[in-house]
Design brief:
The protein has about 525 residues and is α+β, with helices and mostly antiparallel strands. The protein has helices at about 10-15, 25-35, 50-65, 80-100, 110-120, 120-145, 330-335, 375; strands spanning about 150-165, 180-195, 200-210, 235-245, 250-255, 300-310, 315-320, 335-345, 350-360, 385-400, 400-415, 420-435, 445-455, 470-480, 485-495, 505-515. It has 2 domains: about 5-145, no CATH class; about 150-160 and about 175-515, Porin. It has a 16-stranded antiparallel β-barrel with strand order 1-2-3-4-5-6-7-8-9-10-11-12-13-14-15-16. α3 (about 50-65) crosses α5 (about 110-120). The two termini are about 40 Å apart.
Length: about 525
C-alpha cells in the first residue's frame, strides 16, 4: 500500500535526466541514491504488520493522501526500506497540509499519530527532503545551461499521381503532348528549436524524385505544379535554414539560407490556395500566389524585418541574394531582390496588401517560372536586366463558408547592357474558396486567372500575341488528422499566350501525410 509513485520519484527523475547530464554527474548521483535505497527484495526495514504501516494506512484510507501505482494498487504486502516509507510519509504529510489549508480537520488522535511518525522517521524525512531540493536545483541548472531547451521533429510526405494531355505549346497546333501518368513523391523533415522561447531556428531537410514541369513535355511553364520545389535527385538535403527572433514587442527579424522566395515570410493573402511547397491547396504553381513574390531565385539567402503596428497592420521589408556564398557575386554582385509590403485590414472581413519588389538578374531570367517563355526571359538568355514589380492583393471573407482572394501584378523589366530596351508584363487572378465544403476541415477551390504575359516589348518578336487563361478546380479532404487527399484539375487556353496553341489539361491527385 505504501509504495507510492512519489516514493521512488527522485530515482525516476534522475534516470529520465540521464540523457542530458554528463556521464560522471549521473554516475555519482546514481551511486548515492543506490547507497540509500537498496532493492527491497534484500531489506525489510518496515514490515506490513508494523505499527507504522498500520498508522499510515489509516491516514491514506481516510484522506487519500497517496495515489499509488498506475494499476491502482499500493502493494501494501511488500516490505519497504525506511527511506521508501519516509518518502510515502512525506507525500502524505504534504497532502494533509494542503487539506488543512482548505479547512479540513484532523482528530487529536490523528495529529498524535502523525507527530509520532515524524519523530520516528526524522532522519529519513530529512534525507528525502534534501534529495528533492537537490534534484530541483540540478534541474534548474540543467535548464539554464543546456544548448537548446526543446527540439521538435515534424514533417510531411507527399505522394502525387499526375498527368497532362493536349497540344504541345510550341506554336504548332498539330503537335500533341506525349501523354503519360507519373507517380512522384516529396519528403520534408522539419527540425525546430528555440533558445529563448520567443525565437525559432528551423532546419528543413527535403528529398524528391520529381522532374519539374513534366520534364518539359508541355513546352510551357503554365503547366508547372505547386509541389515541384527543391532537389530532384532522391537525396536528403538541407532545403531551408531559417532563424527568426524578436526585437521588442513589434519587430521581428529573419535570417535565411536556402530560402524559397519572398512569399515565405510575408502574407500573400491567399490562405486556401497557397501552401509551402504544394503540400496543400492549389495544384498549380500559378494560383498559389502572385508570381512577383517568386521573381529571381532558386535557393537564396537574406535578411528580413517585419514590423507589426497592431494585430491587423504590418510592414515587411526583405532582401534576398542568390549567390551570397560566392565571393565573386556576394550579397550585391549577383542576382538579388528587395521587397517591401504593407498589409492591413480596412474592415473586419477584408485584408489588403501593396507590394513593391526591385530585382537584378545578370542572366536576364526573372525566374518566376509561371506564364509565357517571354514573361520569364523578356530579352533572351544572358541579357542582364533590372525589374520593378508592383502587386495588389486582396482577401475578402464573404461568409465563414466563402472566401475570395485576388491579385493584380505588374512587372517592368529594363535591359542594363549597352542596348536600351524595356518590357511590360502583367498577370491577375481571382480565386473562390469554400471552407468546410461537405464536411468539416475540407476545402473546395475554383480559380481563374491570366499567368504572366508580356504585353509590351521593345523587341517585338518577344511580345506575346495571344492571351491564355488558367482555370482550375480542386477539392481537399481530410481523411484523418494526419492524412489529406487533394484532387485537382487544370485547364489552359492558348498556352504560352499563343493563339496557335490548343488547350492543355492537367490532372493531379495528392496524398499528404503530416506528422
Amino acid at each position: 500500500m505504501l509504495r507510492s509513485f512519489l516514493a521512488i520519484k527522485p530515482l525516476i527523475l534522475l534516470t529520465a535526466l540521464a540523457v542530458f547530464l554528463p556521464v560522471p554527474v549521473f554516475a555519482a548521483t546514481e551511486e548515492a541514491i543506490t547507497a540509500e535505497i537498496t532493492s527491497v527484495s534484500r531489506l525489510s526495514d518496515v514490515e506490513p504488520t508494523d505499527w507504522e504501516i498500520i498508522a499510515l494506512r489509516s491516514l491514506i484510507e481516510r484522506y487519500g493522501c497517496i495515489t499509488g501505482y498506475s494499476d491502482n494498487t499500493y502493494q501494501g504486502n511488500v516490505s519497504l526500506t525506511r527511506n521508501e516509507f519516509a518518502a510515502a510519509l512525506n507525500t502524505c504529510i504534504n497532502a494533509l497540509n494542503q487539506q488543512l489549508e482548505n479547512q479540513f480537520q484532523l482528530t487529536q488522535a490523528e495529529i498524535a499519530t502523525i507527530q509520532r511518525l515524524q519523530t520516528e522517521f526524522t532522519t529519513e524525512l530529512t534525507i528525502v527532503q534534501s534529495r528533492l531540493t537537490a534534484l530541483e536545483e540540478n534541474t534548474k541548472n540543467l535548464q539554464s545551461q543546456q544548448f537548446s531547451p526543446t527540439m521538435k521533429l515534424g514533417g510531411s510526405f507527399v505522394a502525387v499521381v499526375s498527368g497532362l494531355t493536349g497540344d504541345r505549346a510550341d506554336g504548332n497546333p498539330d503537335t500533341e503532348i506525349d501523354s503519360n501518368i507519373a507517380f512522384n513523391y516529396r519528403t520534408r523533415l522539419n527540425l525546430t528549436t528555440s533558445f529563448s522561447g520567443r525565437d525559432r531556428l528551423l532546419i528543413r531537410l527535403q528529398s524528391s524524385n520529381r522532374v519539374p514541369n513534366f520534364n518539359g513535355a508541355s513546352a510551357t511553364d503554365m503547366t508547372r505544379l505547386s509541389f515541384e520545389v527543391g532537389n530532384t535527385n532522391d537525396n536528403l538535403t538541407v532545403n531551408l535554414l531559417e532563424y527568426r527572433f524578436p526585437v521588442g514587442e513589434k519587430l521581428n527579424f529573419y535570417l535565411f539560407a536556402n530560402a524559397t522566395s519572398h512569399h515565405y515570410y510575408t502574407n500573400v493573402l491567399n490562405p486556401y490556395f497557397a501552401s509551402f511547397g504544394g503540400a496543400k491547396g492549389s495544384p498549380s504553381r500559378f494560383l498559389e500566389r502572385n508570381p512577383i513574390y517568386r521573381i529571381g531565385f532558386i535557393s537564396p539567402a537574406g535578411v528580413v524585418a517585419s514590423y507589426r503596428f497592431n494585430p491587423d497592420t504590418r510592414l515587411d521589408v526583405g532582401y534576398l541574394a542568390e549567390n551570397s556564398n560566392n565571393t565573386d557575386a556576394g550579397l550585391f554582385g549577383g542576382t538579388y531582390s528587395a521587397l517591401a509590403q504593407f498589409t492591413f485590414k480596412p474592415t473586419q472581413n477584408l485584408d489588403l496588401s501593396f507590394t513593391y519588389l526591385h530585382h537584378y538578374s545578370p542572366d536576364g531570367n526573372l525566374l518566376h517560372r509561371t506564364g509565357s517563355n517571354f514573361a520569364n526571359l523578356p530579352f533572351g538568355i544572358g541579357v542582364p536586366l533590372t525589374s520593378n514589380s508592383y502587386g495588389v492583393q486582396a482577401l475578402w471573407r464573404v461568409t465563414p463558408k466563402v472566401a475570395v482572394s485576388s491579385w493584380l501584378g505588374y512587372m517592368t523589366a529594363n535591359r542594363v547592357d549597352c542596348v536600351s530596351g524595356n518590357a511590360d508584363i502583367i498577370n491577375y487572378a481571382v480565386n473562390l474558396a469554400f471552407p468546410d465544403l461537405f464536411t468539416k476541415n475540407a476545402v473546395g477551390g475554383l480559380g481563374l486567372g491570366m499567368p504572366p504575359k508580356t504585353i509590351n516589348n521593345t523587341i517585338a518578336s518577344r511580345q506575346d500575341t495571344g492571351t491564355g487563361l488558367h482555370l482550375e478546380a480542386f477539392y481537399q479532404y481530410h481523411l484523418t488528422e494526419n492524412i489529406t487527399l487533394i484532387l485537382g484539375v487544370i485547364y489552359l487556353t492558348n498556352p504560352n499566350h499563343n493563339h496557335l496553341n490548343k488547350d492543355i489539361f492537367v490532372g493531379t491527385f495528392r496524398t499528404v501525410f503530416n506528422f
